[in-house]
Design goal:
The protein has about 325 residues and is of the alpha/beta class. About 45% of the residues lie in helices and about 20% in strands. Helix 1 packs across helix 8 (about 215-225), helix 5 (about 90-110) runs parallel beside helix 6 and helix 9 crosses helix 11 (about 295-310). It is globular.
Length: about 325
């Protein structure tokens, strides 16, 4: 791989993937929403950036500037369940229509490129009580999950019908520095205001599979190598079930406050009880995550305190 294109590269996963590929000597170009100055993007290793929707026209513009990519990582799209419930049409446009535009462009302009879709464990739905395999039945029940599954089907279709080499990575609970939403960000924000008490929603017994961002981007890179016209699918997780209570308690401990969080028992819409990956397929590729969740939480708290102190100056 000499040249990679990342859609949604300005987002959380995109920035880290850009940096990781750049560190490996790969030229990275990207497109997505938001102005990104040359000085800002150079910190991450982005050589060319187009601020705009993922459309065939914009993809042609990127191609004319940098050439045909060897790999395309499609990270653009909806990012969580909550916003998809508030604005399902927008989530559909971001996740499904962008995938259709990318695949049709690749069919016509970059048929040799390896195409990787960052999907989500939300395609599996709820009701699971043990580690979820890639071959298990798919039963999404939020717009976010349905739209991710639709994008997957488009990738599979273009692989089988047009010979494009595609791979799908179903990411579980990805976290790490630069993530400015969801549980870890929310808890740290609350502790920064009041470190004497912490109340969260749910029961605290919800099981999640936490994958550090550095391990997530490495799996995306590995998946590109295994992309095929048959459609390669792999779970992105550690294969370790950790309760939300354990994560919250670890956050408090790393913050320096030994308090026990309280849970109000109110579940959020679209929030499954158990979402943990079977990672046998990932292991068969020789892929092994390096960051355990305790060290990852410590890493996140240190980053949060650092950016908070910088913002206060």
């Amino acid at each position: 791989m000499k040249l990679a294109l990342i859609t949604g590269a300005r987002g959380f996963v995109g920035r880290h993937l850009t940096h990781a590929l750049h560190q490996q000597g790969i030229q990275v170009c990207g497109m997505g929403h938001g102005a990104w100055t040359e000085s800002e993007r150079s910190v991450w290793g982005m050589s060319y950036w187009l601020n705009g929707e993922v459309t065939k026209r914009n993809l042609d513009i990127v191609g004319s500037k940098v050439g045909q990519p060897d790999a395309v990582f499609h990270l653009a799209g909806g990012s969580s369940v909550g916003p998809s419930l508030l604005a399902p049409e927008e989530d559909f446009r971001r996740s499904v229509l962008s995938a259709a535009e990318l695949l049709e462009w690749a069919r016509l302009a970059a048929p040799e490129a390896r195409l990787v879709l960052a999907s989500s464990a939300a395609v599996y739905g709820a009701g699971h009580t043990q580690a979820i395999r890639e071959t298990d039945a798919l039963a999404p029940y939020s717009p976010y999950g349905y739209h991710k599954r639709m994008a997957e089907e488009l990738f599979e279709s273009y692989g089988k019908n047009f010979g494009l080499r595609v791979a799908i990575v179903r990411l579980f609970s990805v976290y790490g520095p630069e993530l400015r939403k969801q549980l870890l960000w929310d808890v740290c924000g609350r502790l920064a205001v009041d470190a004497t008490r912490l109340e969260l929603g749910g029961s605290g017994q919800e099981m999640r599979d936490w994958l550090h961002i550095l391990d997530a981007v490495e799996l995306l890179r590995v998946a590109a190598v295994h992309a095929s016209s048959e459609g390669f699918i792999v779970n992105g997780g550690m294969g370790i079930a950790v309760t939300v209570r354990e994560i919250a308690e670890q956050l408090c401990a790393r913050w320096g406050m030994h308090i026990r969080p309280d849970f109000n028992g109110k579940r959020r819409p679209g929030d499954p009880q158990y979402l943990v990956a079977d990672v046998a397929v990932a292991k068969s590729l020789g892929y092994t995550p390096k960051m355990n969740w305790q060290a990852g939480v410590a890493d996140y708290v240190a980053w949060f305190k650092r950016v908070s102190s910088q913002a206060a100056v």
